[in-house]
Amino acid sequence: MRKSHLLLVAVLVAAGVVAVLNAYGHGTAEPAAQTAAPVQAATLTVSVETVRSVAIKSSVSATGTVAAWQEATIGAEESGLRLTDVLVAEGDHVKAGNVVARLDASLLKAQLAEQKAAVTQAQATLESAISAAARSNKLLASNAVSAETAEEKATAVKTGQAQVEQAEAAAERLQAELDRTTIRAPFDGIVSSKPAVAGSIVQAGTELMKIIRDGRLEVGVLVPEKDLAAISVGQTASITDASGRAFAGSVSSIAETVNSTTRLATVY
């Protein structure tokens, strides 16, 4: 195509030279019989587009591990008691304060009743000692009793007060133990596991179940250092599990340090 164009130009130039030679060699040239038509310029179509900002979406892919955001282990706080009721199953939703299990409280109830009776007796003894001390003080004023006797009555009051306090403290301790036989959910969540079996004898610390707070899971992914600049807290995230199910989430935190060997950082 380029050769044809050059050839055409060469022919036109040669024709022009001949015309000039004819004109100068023969005097005035004969007028051309016909005026050549003007060459039409090529038309270039131009379109104008307004400059505007366009958001460009980018993504960072990484693999990670799923774990409970906050998971509490619910255990027995009393030893040697039988687990009478387990009121939840794995996967159940619970609210804070819901009763999830009960221990046998019959023995503690009997002990508490006995201790409350001891409190009542101690209070009665104290009231009697207070009355005796008051009478002794009146008699002491008229020298009807000795100072030693009045002092003994005052000491009896102090002893009675101590006995009442001791009995009340024992009753409060038994009441607290009784309260712990009713096991409640510490927060809203989902029961993630339940090894507890009704009828078994448990010890303090025996795991009865686990509850995930608000049913919320957390994914920790390892991201290359070069991709960290593209990630910020609050960004949306899509998590796909091994079965292909997708879950929506958001970035909650980014590790401040990068592993010196792998050059990876954990993003949650």
Radius of gyration: 49 Å
The residue-averaged pLDDT reads 83
- The strand count comes to 13
**Given this structure, which CATH class of the largest domain is correct?**
Mainly Alpha
Write a structural description:
With 268 residues, the chain is α+β, with helices and mostly antiparallel strands. It has 3 domains: 71-104 and 182-213, RNA polymerase II/Efflux pump adaptor protein, barrel-sandwich hybrid domain (OB fold (Dihydrolipoamide Acetyltransferase, E2P), Beta Barrel); 105-180, Helix hairpin bin (Helix Hairpins), CATH 1.10.287.470; 216-267. Helix content is 35%, strand content 23%. It has helices at 2-25, 106-141, 147-179, and strands spanning 64-68, 71-75, 81-86, 93-94, 99-103, 182-184, 189-193, 201-202, 207-213, 217-224, 236-240, 246-250, 264-267. The strands form 4 sheets. Strands 2-9-7-4 form a 4-stranded antiparallel beta sheet, with no helix packed on it. α2 (106-141) runs antiparallel to α3. One of its GO terms (cellular component) is efflux pump complex. Belongs to the membrane fusion protein (MFP) (TC 8.A.1) family. It holds the Pfam family BSH_RND. Residues 72-210 form the Multidrug resistance protein MdtA-like barrel-sandwich hybrid domain. This is RND family efflux transporter MFP subunit.
